[in-house]
């Protein structure tokens, strides 16, 4: 089970999202066979994508986060929707690094900072919304906070945590997005920064069994906290044979003809869920005729 809480505090001056995504990240780890450091990196990325998905308004809207900071993990992509469901992949799931000097999984270094974070929102309009910011630390949370503040002009704090167990399964994963609404008292941001430094790491709290409600209460119980929605979410891929066919058709007649002439059959694999789609010579011929 994974879920997102939506809440407000300080009479609506603060907008809050809290996510518990342990099972969702474990599912991604299992599908992609992620190393511990890759689990932490993609887990943080998926968790924030899931929360950002629930900010979308239209039922069919999607948000795609991608980045490549030049680190050994390569490309990371996470796609989410208003239900907070996520699919994600990395180009090098086996990439791994020794722990950093703080004894933590070295997400910043496996991601790198020589590149950009891209945010594409498909809101069903002619053109998608596209935002891009340079990577700051590669730790994901800081990079997303920078995106919100600079690109969407919403000052935000983003806390993301993934704890990998000794057997490399995911012990805890989750996140918080804390956003200042226009006109909010500027002291609020300082109070929140102070409180975030006071509490134990988010992944520790989740591993101890704290719920999203309890974590929000630890931070905002004296600030008129109102939790108004709980959204169950999961890892979900929406690939289908029809989609794969459309992608093949998009290759063009010549390329399909070449595949038809040179191959007995072709097999395509979905990046997001590793599902395999096989096409025989006859089936490729049918696509050419389409
Ligand atoms: Zn798939």
From TrEMBL:
<keyword id="KW-1015">Disulfide bond</keyword>
<dbReference type="InterPro" id="IPR000397">
    <property type="entry name" value="Heat_shock_Hsp33"/>
</dbReference>
<dbReference type="GO" id="GO:0042026">
    <property type="term" value="P:protein refolding"/>
</dbReference>
<dbReference type="GO" id="GO:0005737">
    <property type="term" value="C:cytoplasm"/>
</dbReference>
<keyword id="KW-0963">Cytoplasm</keyword>
<feature type="disulfide bond" description="Redox-active">
    <location>
        <begin position="270"/>
        <end position="273"/>
    </location>
</feature>
<dbReference type="GO" id="GO:0044183">
    <property type="term" value="F:protein folding chaperone"/>
</dbReference>
<dbReference type="Pfam" id="PF01430">
    <property type="entry name" value="HSP33"/>
</dbReference>
<protein>
    <recommendedName>
        <fullName>33 kDa chaperonin</fullName>
    </recommendedName>
</protein>
<dbReference type="InterPro" id="IPR016153">
    <property type="entry name" value="Heat_shock_Hsp33_N"/>
</dbReference>
<feature type="disulfide bond" description="Redox-active">
    <location>
        <begin position="237"/>
        <end position="239"/>
    </location>
</feature>
<keyword id="KW-0143">Chaperone</keyword>
<dbReference type="InterPro" id="IPR016154">
    <property type="entry name" value="Heat_shock_Hsp33_C"/>
</dbReference>
<comment type="function">
    <text>Redox regulated molecular chaperone. Protects both thermally unfolding and oxidatively damaged proteins from irreversible aggregation. Plays an important role in the bacterial defense system toward oxidative stress.</text>
</comment>
<keyword id="KW-0676">Redox-active center</keyword>
<keyword id="KW-0862">Zinc</keyword>
<comment type="similarity">
    <text>Belongs to the HSP33 family.</text>
</comment>
<dbReference type="GO" id="GO:0051082">
    <property type="term" value="F:unfolded protein binding"/>
</dbReference>
